[in-house]
Amino acid sequence: MDYATLLALLGEGSAHPGGFQATKELIGRIKLPPGTKVLEAGCGTGRTACYLAGLGCDVTAMDRNASMIEKAKQRAGLAGASIRIIQADAASMPFPDGAFDVVLVESVTAFTEGGSALREYRRVLKPGGVLYDHEMALARKLPPSRLRELRSFYGLRHLRTVPEWLKLVRESRFRKLKVSRFAPMDQPAIDRDSFRVIERELLLNREALRMMMKNERLMNKFSKLMGGIVITAWK
Question: pTM for the whole thing?
Answer without folding.
Answer: 0.94
